Prior knowledge:
Elements: H1 31-35, E1 47-48, E2 51-52, H2 64-69, H3 75-83, E3 87-88, E4 90-95, E5 100-105, E6 109-112, E7 117-123, H4 129-134, E8 137-142, H5 148-153, E9 168-170, E10 176-178, E11 183-195, E12 198-210, E13 220-223, E14 226-229
Antiparallel strand pairs: 1-2, 3-13, 4-5, 4-8, 6-7, 7-12, 8-11, 9-10, 11-12, 13-14
Bound molecules: flavin mononucleotide.
Amino acid sequence: MVDGTVAGPVTSTVAEHPATEPVPITSRTTLRDxxxxxQTLQVVSFQIPGAVFGRSHPVPGRxxxxxVRAPGIRVEQYRxxxxxxxxxxxxxxxxxxxxxxxxxxxxxxxxxLDPPLVSxxxxxxxxxxxxxxxxxxxxxxxxxxxxxxxxxxxxxxxxERFSDESMWTRLETGEPVLHGTPVRLRVVVxxxxxxxxSTLVVGCVVHAHEDPADESRIPLLYYEGAYHxxxxxxx
Length: 235
Ligand SMILES: Cc1cc2nc3c(=O)[nH]c(=O)nc-3n(C[C@H](O)[C@H](O)[C@H](O)COP(=O)(O)O)c2cc1C
């Protein structure tokens, strides 16, 4: 999150990155490689024409932090405003090579229809960050209102998130999946973009699974620091 302090010296590195084509993650191993212990190398910056992300910023002479902090908004104001933005609740899961990893996330959003891209962010202090940075693929669960207990569980102690083995299984590709989820998306990670205190994960949806059960049709929302169920507005 933004810390509300005045930005320090600008450290734009635009000149170091003159490329005009996107530079995606350059080297990845397969899930099988990682499970067998081989190293994964990832580049966590990329460029598009006229814009440089990752270690740089599209506006020459300004860092991301400088432009965000310039208006002087305090972290309390930022938090207070965004608490009033309702968000669908998801759980992101992946296989780290040394066990299942997962966390509750409301930063999920759709980015592009063709190709079918989605994104979410993970804070750099999260215990899941190293696993996310190394992941080739992951699963995003779009939770139903009957899964509030899972949303709470996956935001608490990381050690206990997968301790109840009756709640989850694995796909053939290795990622953990949670039973009874209305919609789950299997996503191949396309790129990682460091932004502020978080890393934006952009992924391509390669499989969408919808549970036909009636009880799973009502999505779980998070709003004003509490879980809610979606209710249709009256006309
Ligand atoms: C409703 C809700 C939404 C959250 N959304 C995100 C998110 O989008 N990205 C993220 O990194 N953490 C998010 N978190 C926090 C994580 O679920 C988790 O608690 C945090 O990463 C700390 O995990 P750790 O103890 O494993 O480090 C959210 C937590 C809650 C309760």
